Amino acid sequence: MAYTRKIRKKGGDKSEKQCMDTKCQLWLKQAEENTNKFREEMMKKYNKLLKSPCKGNKTDCEKKLKNFKQQMENFDKALKKNKNKGNKLELKMCKKYYCNKGCKETILEDGEPDILPKSLLKQFKNDKDILDNLRKTRKEVFGKKKSVLKDGFFEGIKSKTLKNLKKEGAISGCVRNI
Known about the structure:
Layout: H1 14-51, H2 58-81, H3 83-98, H4 118-123, H5 128-142, E1 149-150, E2 153-154, H6 159-167
Helix pairs in contact: 1-2, 1-3, 2-3
């Protein structure tokens, strides 16, 4: 009997890359839209403060405006400075939730209901409260089952949502509340 060696390809499989190119690009776009909406809301509040009559001490009102303006400037600086870092984090989250066959390294990974995946134990080894909460949640989600995934997606996802996820290019649905 001949021995054949498996060769691992760098960068995962085609479906994972395709998911990253489709679903995660939509994810990034949505994250950017959310950031812009937040910024617009903050600007509206700032403009409303500018136009509203000052109640009480005038210097207090001026301090509030100055502080608010400083917060907006800090927010803008942080966005510019950390844009690439933020995008990497967003892509990492998207990959974990929607481009992750078998939902590896998540609470939905197949296994015994009362045993957390090793990756989660390692990730939160210094935070007993989080680990206890994850164990409790995993037990509630799994019940007596060893798997809560159906074709790579959490079995509790609504069919309409599942259809949309697949249409957007997702290959997994490693989230409960969507």
